[in-house]
Amino acid sequence: MKAKWALILSFFLFVAPGLAAAQSVEVLWLGHATTRITSVAGKVIVIDPFLTRNPTTPPEYRDLKAVGKVDLILVTHGHQDHVADLLDLARLTGAKVLANYEFARNLVSLGLMEENKVIAMNRGGMTEPLGRGVRIHMVPADHSSSLDYNILGIRTPDESASIRQGGGAGVSVGYVIEMENGFKIYHTGDTAAFGDMALIRELHKPDLALVCIGGFFTMGPEEAAYAVRELIKPKAVIPIHYGTFPVLNRTPAEFRKALGASAIQVLDVAPGQAMRF
């Protein structure tokens, strides 16, 4: 009998926690908009890789090798603070890159990536590039985009501003990522608050939202709080895209205050702090 109870106790102390971790989703925010998501089956998705020159990235992650295995990279738009490490990370890990149609196709046409390493899609679409069970939904965002030749390391005879800062970049997007266990994560990308966030809620019912709050280039805490409380209505939210540059001077404390008395859980995590769901 004692041996039986010892076996049961050992299971709950040592085996059950490992099983719970294996059956959960890990979300690791690495500063600004950069996020690493690990699925239940261990598939790794990185969104908007901006690490080596990001002042809010934990020092250890400024070495791209520390990111580890990456199966898929999602790009919300072409601004340099979202794609600065895109090509290096893709080449280092062999990950495929998924982005809006124009941006993705131009990665190929400019000779930056091989055809079979790029997934070019558009808002409203869904794909399962990691196999059945992990669904990637591309959803709208209200923001600009650009194809910055300088940050991509391209030199061209045409030095016009329209080519260096905007040509062929397509539109900004967000993503809803549906995991094997049904958990849904909405990464807003850079965006203003817009009414169709309510449609994203109705269609996808996200459990967790990673929401930009920094202001100036995106919605600030007040607009983000309205979007979360009235439109998106997730169970939990992680504020992102703040504190990176002097103009992004809004804070999670302001966001929490603007959200008011709400059942939505605010997860004020530090860059490098992993969360499991």
Termini separation comes to 36 Å
What is the quaternary state of this protein?
A: single chain
Approximately what portion of the residues adopt beta-strand conformation?
A: 15-25%
The shape is: globular
Unreliable spans are: 6-21, 159-166
Supply the number of structural domains: 1
Helix fraction by DSSP (H/I, runs of at least 4): 25-40%
User: Could you name the CATH topology?
Assistant: Metallo-beta-lactamase, Chain A
The H-and-E topology, N to C, reads as HEEEEHHEHEEEHEEHEHEHEE
Biggest sheet: strand arrangement: 6-5-4-3-2-1-14
The CATH first-level class comes to Alpha Beta
Q: Give average pLDDT, whole number.
A: 90
Overall description:
With 277 residues, this protein is of the alpha/beta class. It has one domain: Ribonuclease Z/Hydroxyacylglutathione hydrolase-like (Metallo-beta-lactamase, Chain A). The protein is 27% helix and 21% strand. It has eight helices and 14 strands. The protein has helices at 2-22, 80-83, 86-93, 101-109, 161-164, 197-204, 221-232, 252-259; strands spanning 26-29, 35-38, 44-47, 72-74, 96-100, 118-121, 126-127, 135-140, 173-178, 184-187, 208-212, 236-240, 265-266, 274-276. Strands 6-5-4-3-2-1-14 form a seven-stranded mixed β-sheet, covered by helices on one side. Strands 7-8-9-10-11-12-13 form a seven-stranded mixed β-sheet. β1 and β2 (35-38) form a beta hairpin. The longest helix has 21 residues, at 2-22. The protein is globular. The protein starts with a helix and ends with a strand.
